[in-house]
Structure formats: C-alpha cells, structure tokens
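Anyone up for a design puzzle?
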C-alpha cells in the first residue's frame, strides 16, 4: 500500500490474482531468486516484481539474490519497473519514518524470555511466511547446538508450526526437527512405556519413569479436553527429561526422548476430523479416531502379522478417505478378521482409549 501511494506499483501487479503457496510448490528451484531456500519466486513478472520489492524492502542485500532477481526481471521485460521500486525503497531508507498504526505493530515471536533485570527478550519472529521459515531453521540450529533445551524447543516448535498453518506455509519448508516436535499429536501412554523399557535396558532405575507413566494414564483418563491432555503429557515429558538430564542420557534410535515417545499418537487435527465417524467391530460402534489412536507398534505386538496388516489397512482407509464411505470400507476390512482377532481388537481399543 505504501509503494502504491508512491506510484511505484505497476498495473499488472495491482490487477494480479492473490497467489497461494500451492502455486509455487511444484516449481523448479531455479524459478526462485534464492534457489537453495526456495524463496522469492520469479516464475511470472508479477511474482518477480513482488519478490524484488519484498526482498529489498526487508533489507535484503545478498548480491547473488539481487542479481538473480535482476536477471529474471530482464527476462520478463520488467527491468525498469524493478529498478524503479528499488530506487524508491533505497530513497525511503534514508528518510525518517512517520509514526503510524503499522509502525506501532509489534512483531510476534515464538519465544519470549524475561531476564532478571525485568527486560523481555524475544526470539524467532513468526509474523509472515519468510519469518516463519527462517525462524524454524534458526530454532532447529539452536536445538542441535544445545543452546535451546528440548522442553523449550518443543514449545517453540509448536508455536512455529501453528503459525505456519495460519499463514499457509508448507510444512515441507520448515526444518524437519521443528515439524517433528511441533506437530500437535495426541499423547500415547503405550509408547511412553516403551521409553521406560529403553531406560531399564540401559541399567537405569525404571521406578520414577513408571510412576510418571501411571500419572500420565490417570491424568489422561480424567482430562476434560484435548488441550488439558496435551498439558498433562507435556508436564510428564518435562519431568522425564529432567531425570534423563540427571543421568546424562544422549538420545538416539535406542534411547528415544520423552517428547517423541509420549506425543506419538495421531495428529490432533485427526481427532476433530474423525470425531463424528464410527466403524463397527462385531456390531459395536467404535469411534474411528480410537482406531487411529491405536499405534502400529501396539498392533504389531498384539496381533499376528496377517491380522496386524488388516488393521493397519483399515486405519489407512479411514485416514485417507475422511468420510462415512471410508468408515464403511474400514468396517468391511475389520470384518475379515477372525472372530478371536475381532474380540482382541475390541479389548485393545478399550484398553488404550483415553
């Protein structure tokens, strides 16, 4: 809007349609001025001009990116328009900025810390798509270098993932660690028990962990909402992390961390998506989300290979179909199990449902 007031926005940009993230997902890397990070698309003249204004307007100065934008602008025949907007932005950088409503806007951050002197310091801005992607990489780097402890990283990652969803940012563009710890998943006490077994195998006293798993089960059984369940599970995971830290544990394939273990159920979004649909097991209506909440590990340990494959196929049908028809198909799949396997399935669902 500010550039439009300066008369620096070409008509083809003003008249263009609003772009969605899906418009850029299938583009080759060389369609972006920053091909490594897949940022600043220049596949059309409108996108090229907007990338030029956005990059320099935010203070970007990388000569390679600026050079790529200039080359693509020349190819689109809009070099003069790009040079003009850069000139306007350059001149504005030397002018005092008048106080306005936009100037008073406070940038959102994924983490805020209050220091002993009362000052508040903010980290990982999440105001827009570029900030979100950049902050995900920065937070992941801080986590890998152990500058950001796991419990704090878990909270930061969730905020970043939520912001990504709000702003239409593809999760594939976020750091993998942020997605891994930031996706909101349902707690799973069973996989928490697997965590305890790992500690026991390493010669660590399992009693404190078992007490926490028992507290998790009791808490989930009494929780009145998904949000309350998540808070209870996060508290248990943080307490386990504190015990792990006291033992100096390093996490890996044979020593999974508490947050990965406990938050390993289906996505919370699946709970909402499938809450109103049911499947039938021996004429008993079972909410489809309860089948989705049954982990593959639990299925493999409880059923024969053939029965486990059938149950997993039923889960896949529900997750992919998202409809009553899909639940009917899943019901037929479950009906193909032996009578004994169906009874065990009902008992297992009753045992893990929370």
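Challenge accepted. My sequence:
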């Amino acid at each position: 809007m500010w550039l439009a007031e300066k008369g620096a926005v070409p008509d083809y940009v003003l008249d263009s349609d609003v772009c969605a993230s899906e418009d850029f997902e299938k583009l080759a890397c060389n369609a972006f001025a920053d091909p490594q990070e897949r940022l600043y698309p220049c596949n059309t003249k409108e996108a090229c001009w907007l990338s030029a204004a956005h990059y320099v307007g935010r203070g970007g100065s990388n000569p390679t990116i600026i050079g790529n934008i200039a080359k693509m602008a020349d190819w689109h025949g809009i070099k003069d328009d790009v040079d003009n907007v850069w000139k306007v932005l350059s001149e504005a950088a030397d002018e005092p900025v008048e106080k306005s409503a936009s100037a008073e806007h406070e940038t959102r951050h994924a983490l805020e810390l209050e220091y002993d002197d009362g000052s508040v310091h903010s980290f990982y801005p999440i105001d827009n798509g570029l900030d979100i992607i950049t902050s995900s990489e920065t937070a992941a780097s801080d986590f890998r270098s152990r500058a950001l402890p796991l419990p704090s990283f878990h909270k930061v990652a969730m905020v970043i993932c939520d912001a990504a969803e709000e702003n239409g940012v593809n999760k594939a563009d976020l750091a993998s660690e942020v997605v891994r710890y930031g996706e909101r998943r349902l707690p799973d006490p069973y996989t928490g028990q697997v965590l305890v077994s790992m500690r026991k195998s390493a010669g660590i006293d399992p009693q404190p962990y078992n007490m926490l798993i028992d507290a998790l089960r009791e808490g989930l059984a009494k929780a009145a909402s998904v949000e309350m369940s998540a808070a209870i599970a996060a508290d248990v995971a943080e307490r386990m992390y504190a015990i792990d830290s006291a033992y100096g544990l390093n996490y890996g394939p044979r020593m999974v961390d508490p947050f990965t273990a406990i938050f390993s159920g289906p996505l919370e979004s699946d709970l909402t998506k499938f809450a109103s649909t049911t499947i039938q097991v021996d004429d008993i209506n079972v909410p489809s989300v309860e089948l989705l909440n049954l982990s593959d590990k639990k299925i493999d340990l409880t059923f024969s290979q053939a029965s486990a494959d059938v149950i997993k196929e039923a889960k896949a049908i529900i997750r992919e179909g998202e409809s009553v028809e899909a639940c009917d198909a899943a019901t037929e799949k479950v009906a193909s199990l032996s009578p004994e396997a169906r009874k065990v399935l009902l008992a297992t669902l009753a045992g893990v449902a929370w």
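A detail worth pointing out: Confidence is low (pLDDT under 50) at residues 96-105.
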